[in-house]
Amino acid sequence: xxxxxxxxxxxxxxxxxxxxxxxxxxxxxxxxxxxxxxxxxxxxxxxxxxxxxxxxxxxxxxxxxxxxxxxxxxxxxxxxxxxxxxxxxxxxxxxxxxxxxxxxxxxxxxxxxxxxxxxxxxxxxxxxxxxxxxxxxxxxxxxxxxxxxxxxxxxxxxxxxxxxxxxxxxxxxxxxxxxxxxxxxxxxxxxxxxxxxxxxxxxxxxxxxxxxxxxxxxxxxxxxxxxxxxxxxxxxxxxxxxxxxxxxxxx
Length: 251
Description:
This protein has helices spanning about 1-10, 15-30, 45, 55-60, 70-90, 95-115, 120-135, 155-165, 170-195, 205-210, 225-235, and strands at about 140-145, 150. The chain has a domain at about 65-210. The chain is about 60% helix and about 0% strand. Helix 5 (about 70-90) crosses helix 7, helix 6 crosses helix 7 and helix 6 (about 95-115) packs across helix 9 (about 170-195). The protein is built from eleven helices and two strands, in the order H-H-H-H-H-H-H-E-E-H-H-H-H. By secondary structure, it is mainly alpha-helical. Strand 1 and strand 2 form a beta hairpin. It starts with a helix and ends in a 17-residue tail after the last helix. The chain has a two-stranded antiparallel ribbon. It is a multi-pass membrane protein. Its main location: endoplasmic reticulum. One of its GO terms (biological process) is cellular response to stress. Keywords: Endoplasmic reticulum, Membrane, Transmembrane, Transmembrane helix.
């Protein structure tokens, strides 16, 4: 148990709480401590009955059962793997900026869920984070199942197809990819590559709650170091090179 505890404490702070919540809430529903019908995002209950907890519980809850257990575990692995890599990579020392990214993506997904009557938000949020990671490391070569190798920029779409095979739907994954693309475009692509204005800025209260570490840069509009190097290389006509290779699933 001590090894498991050490591993859990080694997970980056924000990812650790997200990961823990994504285990605890489905477990509470599975054990019947809280009825799962109270955990879904239902627009009528949220808007007209003021059950304001539903967007939060729908983000953590997943109906685990014989037909959904494998899909749940796969996406829980994606949450741990890519949220950890993003939090300790591009957002290293800047927890407020990472939290803002999660909040921005989450708000966009909640709005989409209310409009499209989506009852579960776990997979879209995970996919939005994975999409941002893939774009920040787009030229990295990753390995997927059966030894297939491709650039990281294709990973969200490969996983979309993979989840379709094991889960039978692509709506959640597609919405997650689109929301991740929106954040990436507004945060990095438009201001850095296209010279546009910065539309996103981390609120100051997040910096007071989650202060930067090791002198991290405060505020959005400043790309991660890997992207600044890529932008400098591109001035000479070079290609983007936003990461180093690794095998999918390596710790």
